[in-house]
Amino acid sequence: LLLANQRIGGFSSTPEFISLHSVDPNTKELPRAGGQVVREPASTNAVDAVEDTFDEAMKREAAAWAATDSKLFSQSQPTTVRPTNAVGYSESLQHPAFDDKLDDLVVLLPRPKPAMPLAPSNLNPVEQQTPISPKKSVEEGIWPQVDSTIPLHSLIQQYGTTEGGGTCENDFGKPLVDRWRDGRKNMCTDPGKGELRSSLRCYTVKQTRHTGDGDSFCEGENLSISFADYADKSKTDALLNEHKRNPSRRLWVNHRKGTVRGVCTRARDFSSTPLPLWLGEWLGGDRFETVASASDLKCTEWVRHPVYIVNRHGFANLYLLSEDVVNAFIALSVLKMSVHDLQIYLTDLYPKQPYSEGFWNKIFGPRHPAVHAFRLGQKFGINGRVCFEKVIWGIPGPASIISTDVALRTKCGKSPILRAYSHFSMASAGFLGMPQRTFTSTAQQIVLTYISRSSTKHPNLAHCGDDGFFRCEEWKFLEGKVFNRALLNEEKMIEHLQEVLGDSVKVQNVDLTSVSFMEQLEVIANTDILLGTHGAGLTHTLFLPPHAVLIELFPTGASVNKHFHNLSKWIGRTYYEMSCGDNVDIGAVTNVVKSAMEH
Q1: Are 414 and 329 in contact (CB under 8 A)?
Q2: Count of CB atoms within 10 A of residue 173's CB?
Q3: Are 536 and 323 in contact (CB under 8 A)?
Q4: Which of 139, 281, 444, 448 is the most buried (most CB within 10 A)?
């Protein structure tokens, strides 16, 4: 097999070598020049490249891109493929038109002549995408208009199909929403008598590579709920004390008998229906109780607008919180709902802040502020009950699509669900298509934002207070613990970058924990290159402008999981990664940034 003098993404290439390696199907490990080991998934278009001439494969690829992207963009072009600095390409030319045919085949294409000096050997520009100007897109009406009344599923339909072939579209595109909707099951149905009739339905889907019997959420009508467990101080204190001893113990209450009541008849297989994680602690067993008449619901008050109940996976970690928020977006899409009249109930024991005001109020509850379990316990006490015309128990955080295969590089790109979610979030927050983030002139200043990890205050102390279950005196034992994962030479790196890059780049060092979530989004919306060490703050790759680049540093001891590589690929983001010590090689980082600037 010889591929010579081809044009790849604007680079003129000469044949250097082509090699087929049999690799481990789980780790995808293969050796590279200089003894380095890299992890790459099998190329999804490898067999096509073998069966056809390379020219024919490229022409077919371009046609497939154009057919897909024409649904969203008026002027489509194939994705630019650019080299890693070793000898191959990383996940090049992936498209849903190509299926996975050989999982153990990796094709290393000829190394092109670079248009600029190669970055140091520890740079791996894993993903690069064709930049799209947000100003141009908004002015041409490419992005659909967003307001709180739009059913969320209609946004997903605007973004075509997921790239990568195989199960990618089923797992990250509109078919996932459709399959979840088709998994509807009546758990408690109308008995056919009386004026007020209750119902409970659960929606279950089996996601690829997710464990268990399926991932679920539930929807009810005319149901009565007791919040007595949040008024029971002995119960909440016992759970908090257990969490202190074992921080991995999630602060989800296991509810008492009869917490939920409905005037309906339970399905025969109610007990065998999957209710994973906290759904079972709300609705499983005798927690859901059927009653004979509306008077037995014992309603203290009625809530007429829809309520979405969530037990958060975490409260101060943006990645864990994003699991819950993306899940809310999916659940509402399954139900063909908008957020217009929605209210969020946070029914875990974690502090309400730091993200309630931004995520849950501004984006998902524009008319009704989120309510915390502490307030529910205060207001309704042991004996009060609230009746809901419509209530939804959301998808538990660990079931999120963004938690799929975090140990491996995903082959799936440009998820319509996550792109629609990003679009909806930034539009709802007022940051979509900011005109200053376009590049019509080479003289325009590039903004590089470095996410600092210098904050030393533990989040349990930073967000405790007497207005919640996290009373500050209970967490004083954390005051002496260091909560700092900053690079040792962080300040020198920032100074060097500004000095070397000059006035063409504005370098800003931002500690995101010191500002509100809406202020974080404002920073991110005005960022062209986001740089930071592996950590939850890099979840902001979901909210960067379309042309922006993410650079992830892996210092000594950092997780090797691919959370932010995968998020970037699912959103269509150009992504670079670099291994480093606690004292980062400043020159190497500078070269990575220069490569990102060139992009």
Answers
A1: no
A2: 24
A3: no
A4: 448
